[in-house]
Amino acid sequence: MTMQDRAAKRSLDPATQQMLRLAAERGYETTWERLEAQQPQCGYGELGVCCRHCTMGPCRIDPFGDSGPQKGVCGATADTIVARGLLRMIAAGAAAHSDHGRDIAHTLLLTAQGKGGGYEIKDEAKLHALAAEYGIATEGRTKEDIALDLARAAYAEFGNQEGPILFTRRAPAKRVALWQTLGIEPRGVDREIVESMHRTHIGVDNDPVNLILHGLRTSIADGWGGSMIATELSDVLFGTPRPVQSQANLGVLKDDQVNIILHGHEPTLSEMIVAAAQDAEMLALAQQQGAAGINVAGMCCTGNEILMRHGIPVAGNFLQQELALITGAVEAMIVDVQCVFPALPELAACFHTKIISTSPKAKFPGATHIEFHEERAYEIAKGIVREAVLNYANRKAALVNIPRDKTECMVGFSVEAIVAALGGTLDPLLGAVKSGAIRGIAGVVGCNNPKVRHDYGHITLVKELIKNDVLVVNTGCNAIACAKAGLLQPEAAELAGAGLQGVCRALGIPPVLHMGSCVDISRILVACAAIANALGVDISDLPVAGAAPEWMSEKAVSIGAYVVSSGIYTVLGVAPPVLGGPAVTQLLTAGAEGVVGAMFAVEPDPEKAAALILQHIQKKRAALGLG
Length: 627
Ligand code: NFS
Ligand code: SF4
Hints:
The chain has 627 residues and is an alpha/beta fold. The protein folds into 4 domains: 3-58, no CATH class; 78-238, Substrate Binding Domain Of Dnak, Chain:A, Domain 2 (Up-down Bundle), CATH 1.20.1270; 250-399, Rossmann fold (3-Layer(aba) Sandwich); 409-623, 3-Layer(aba) Sandwich (Rossmann fold). It is built from 25 helices and 16 strands. Strand 11 (440-444), helix 19 (456-467) and strand 12 (470-474) form a beta-alpha-beta unit. The chain is globular.
């Protein structure tokens, strides 16, 4: 295969293809080479039928059932092993999102106490709304006093023993009642995660159904708990997103400026780096180094956070992290937690690029570690920016190759912004759904995965949906894929069916609405709850669906589980490691419908995935009498 073909086979995105060709020419290793080196990947692992939970193992179940073992040393069956494995994935994903939420709550607490190193309370309206929800008095109190109570209340949700987690009450009453009947209403966020670890220890919970039900409970503690707290308190601290114009793809890097890439997840860090990069002292230092300025660009979800709140351009999604380094034009890639390849420092060593790790939770051999503490946030952020600026002189012009590709995008559709775009009420949207101008709404989210042609799953599915008058809302790496492909511009309405196109043109909005980072899938839940409540039905009655065409992370497993638990049919483009457990597979892809009113489907072909979603939407419309 020629280099051209291979690059095109690996990614749909032209900038990515260009960097992949360069990588092949120069011998830089990327995740795609490492995936090839892993072939053939372990079939037991793929099916989820291996277990290392104790040292009587490791055990594996023969998936063909003829000659090999059918039980682990302890007697665990394939379904028990698969269910335990899935529950641990959900717990890890819920932990990642929720620990992020906890850190935001901590930052709000410090800020309220006057100990936050430069943070402010930016959205007082949201502070008041959340205080009202928590029953916190606001009359005659300063915003710091209110924020202190709110931060403490939100903080307590993680360690609560009895619950309920307050934001679960945002779900329609029927949904909450269903969770209670099923015994899957979460108590505290941490409690459910700890219980997941307990149940999956050898010889505790051995019943696949009981294990999966606790998985749903843990995931609800993420979606309607940890993630929702992360979203809401981030809005209080950094402002609730409103539509803003920006640009996406590696072409946002600049030849003549200090390029800083912010990669990771927590806006507590990225917000401060953005501010420090605008500091007059830093700009003067950059000029002294011969740079025309400081150019900050985002990557992955922290990229989404600063994209939607400040219009900071986004350099790319998950699979572009190594390719950004290969441009040779990055002075520093600043990372915190989640989705950051351990491969980065070794690749960065081929260039002048510094990988700067910042979280005490996430260190990388070979990286420069400058620990970030919220109490001295601005000061530390300036120190980090200084490192990047001083590195500009080390850039090797001969190694610089910045692709030209960059695309305009309109981002920042929080629920508040959507309601504002609709003229202050959801009614126009409900009207459009009822009339059939909009057939339904799909949340398309999640990662990239080198097993799937980069961005192809995302873009093909989203285009197919809007063509059929399905309004798409997105987050995470799907949102960045869509930004790069030009789908987040109002002009993309021309790719939509006539009904959706009319709505978009009337409101001046794109047919694909960027709702933020992955924790902001909680915004999609809030929107679904509001629509369901307005129609007097449950979320499972709505013509809505979810999809993750290229997912890879444990966070995505937790998301999938809470989306289905919330009553939303979800199509996955990559199979989770459960297929070796027939009862678990049956439960997730069929039985769940009768339990929570929604189920999973696995469909790697994005066109077929779109067909499944359209069929589902049609079925729900018919049941609501909408035709
Ligand atoms: Ni979500 Fe965001 Fe991207 Fe996947 Fe990773 S960045 S939190 S996990 S890869 S969408
Ligand atoms: Fe094997 Fe059971 Fe131990 Fe797992 S818990 S390794 S199946 S003996």
